Amino acid sequence: MIERILKTTLTLLLMLAVIQTYSCKKAAATAAEEPKPALAGSHAIIPLPQSVAYAEEVFVLDNEVKIVADGQYATAVNLLNKDLSQLAGISLIVSASASGKAIVLKEDPGLSPASYEIAINKDKISITGRNKESVFHGIQTLRQYLWTASQDKAGRKITLKAVVIKDKPSYEWRVFNLDVARNFYTKDYVKKLIDWMALYKLNRLHLHLTDDQGWRIPIPKYPGLITEGSSRPFNEYDLENIERAKSNPIYTIDNRFVSTSNGQKVYKAAYTRADLEEIVAYAASNYVEVIPEVDMPGHMYAAIKAYPWLSSVNAAGWGKEFSWPICPCKPDVMQFAYDVLDELMAIFPSKYIHIGNDEVDKTTWESSPECAQYMRSNNLSNVGQIQKLLITNLQNYLQSKGRKAMVWDDATEVGVNPDVPVTYWRDWITPNRALANGNRFIMTPWTWFYLSSTPSDEAISTLYNFSPAQRFGNLFDDRIDGYQACVFTENIPSEAAFEYYVYPRLQAFAELVWANNRREMNSFVQRLKTHLKTMDKEGVRYKVPGFTK
Ligand code: ACM
C-alpha cells in the first residue's frame, strides 16, 4: 500500500514534468527523422510502415491464386488462409510454382536487417523479407491490408489496390511483459495473446512466472513450490477485486483458479512443464521469443512459504514495503537458485533469462549471522554487495551454459556488469551507475508503459507520444535496445479485465516501438478504428477509446 501511495504521488509529479516538457518536444525531434509514409486513409496498417506507395492497377484475389513459397511459412500461410476464408470464403493452396496469379513469398538476404517489402501489381503479390521472420512480418501487414480492401463475399474475391510497401522496425526489442503470478492466465490464453503480439510485430514475451503471490512453474527438485507456492488464501488485492466486481464484472476473479479450503477461499494455479513448452513452441512459430523471469532474491514470499529455509530468518514475511528475500549467503539457497535456472534453461531456449532483482528488502541479511560470515569470507562491506555478488554468480552460471542474464533497474544500484541488459521501469530514479557503466536498456518507464495503470484515452496518447528526450533529455541516447509494455496483474483478475486494460494500448505501444519517428497520433486514431472492428469480430473486450467515436 505504501508502495502504491508513493507511486501515485510520483506519478502526479511526473505527469507535471511531462506537461512541462511537452512544449520542448518539437525542438527535441531530430533532423534525421525518417520521411513520413503515405498516411491518408487508404490503409489501416498498425504499426505504420516505413513507406506506402500506391499504383493505379488492382490485384483480384480469388481461389485461382496460388501461394508460391521458397521455404516453410506454415503459420503465416494458415493465418492468411483463415482471414481469406472469413473475409470472402477464399482458401489458397501452396504450390511450387504458378503460371497464373500468385502470392510469392521469398527471402532476400540483400535486404537490410529485419526489413521486408510487399509489392502488389495486377498479376502478383510479392512478399520479400530479409529472412523468414521478416517474410512473416510482411504477411502480418498483408493481413491488415486486406481489412481495407474491397471484399466481395458472394463473388469470393477481394480486390486490392496495387502498392509497394517497404518496412523495417525501429527497435529490435519489442517486448510484452505478462505477470502470471498475481493472477494467472492459461496456456491457451497466453497463446491468444501471442496471436495479437504477432499481428503487431511484437517479438518478445517476458513471462513473470513467480512472485510473492504465487509460483507458477514446476521445478522438479522442489515440488513444494507448486503444492504450497502456487496457492494463496485470498489477499488484499483479491478482496479489492471482489469489491470492484460488485459494480464492474470484469473484476470477478477467474473461478477456474478459486477453491475453498478449511472454509477459506484459496487462489491456486500453475503451468505444467508441457504447458510451458507448448507456449514456447507456439510463440516460436509466431516469431515471438519467450524470456522467462523468476524474480530473485526478493518477491519470493511464495517460495519461502513452501521452503522457509530459503530465507535468512527461516520464515516468510514482510519488511516495510517488500517481502523478505531468499538468502544468497547459504550454499543450499544458491543451489536452489541454480536448480531453478537449470529448469528455466531446459524449458526456455531464449538467450536471455530474466533474474529479476527488483525491490529487495535486505534487512534480514543485515541481522543474519550467516550473512555476516559470508561478508567476511567474501570481503564484502555491506549487504548491497551480497546482492551484487548474487547477480554476478547467477550471471556467470548462465554464461557457463551459453545464456545471459537480464535484470530490473533496481539491480543497478548495487552494481551490475556492463553486459547485462537492464529493464528500466523506475522512471523516478535515474540509473546513473548503469549509464556510467555502459549498460544497454529495455525501456519500460512505469508512468507510460505499465498497461496495468487505469485505461483511458490519456493513457493511450501519453504512451503513444512517449519519447525518451521528453522525460530524460539525452541521457539514454543510443543506449536503448527497445521498449516493453508491462502488465502486472494485481487488479487484473480475469481475461475480460486483461483485455480492458491492454487493448488498444497494445496497438499504440506497437506503433511506438516499431515505427518510432513515423508516429502521428491523428493518423493512428484513424487507422485504429479498423482494428477496433477486427477486435469486435474476434470478441476482444477492449476499452473503447473516446477519440475513435
Ligand atoms: C516492477 O514493477 N516491480 C518491476
UniProtKB/TrEMBL annotation:
<keyword id="KW-0326">Glycosidase</keyword>
<dbReference type="GO" id="GO:0004563">
    <property type="term" value="F:beta-N-acetylhexosaminidase activity"/>
</dbReference>
<keyword id="KW-0378">Hydrolase</keyword>
<dbReference type="Pfam" id="PF00728">
    <property type="entry name" value="Glyco_hydro_20"/>
</dbReference>
<dbReference type="InterPro" id="IPR015883">
    <property type="entry name" value="Glyco_hydro_20_cat"/>
</dbReference>
<comment type="similarity">
    <text>Belongs to the glycosyl hydrolase 20 family.</text>
</comment>
<feature type="active site" description="Proton donor">
    <location>
        <position position="359"/>
    </location>
</feature>
<dbReference type="GO" id="GO:0030203">
    <property type="term" value="P:glycosaminoglycan metabolic process"/>
</dbReference>
<dbReference type="InterPro" id="IPR025705">
    <property type="entry name" value="Beta_hexosaminidase_sua/sub"/>
</dbReference>
<protein>
    <recommendedName>
        <fullName>beta-N-acetylhexosaminidase</fullName>
        <ecNumber>3.2.1.52</ecNumber>
    </recommendedName>
</protein>
<dbReference type="GO" id="GO:0016020">
    <property type="term" value="C:membrane"/>
</dbReference>
<dbReference type="Pfam" id="PF02838">
    <property type="entry name" value="Glyco_hydro_20b"/>
</dbReference>
<dbReference type="GO" id="GO:0005975">
    <property type="term" value="P:carbohydrate metabolic process"/>
</dbReference>
<dbReference type="InterPro" id="IPR015882">
    <property type="entry name" value="HEX_bac_N"/>
</dbReference>
<dbReference type="InterPro" id="IPR017853">
    <property type="entry name" value="GH"/>
</dbReference>
<feature type="domain" description="Beta-hexosaminidase bacterial type N-terminal">
    <location>
        <begin position="43"/>
        <end position="167"/>
    </location>
</feature>
<dbReference type="InterPro" id="IPR029018">
    <property type="entry name" value="Hex-like_dom2"/>
</dbReference>
<feature type="domain" description="Glycoside hydrolase family 20 catalytic">
    <location>
        <begin position="171"/>
        <end position="516"/>
    </location>
</feature>
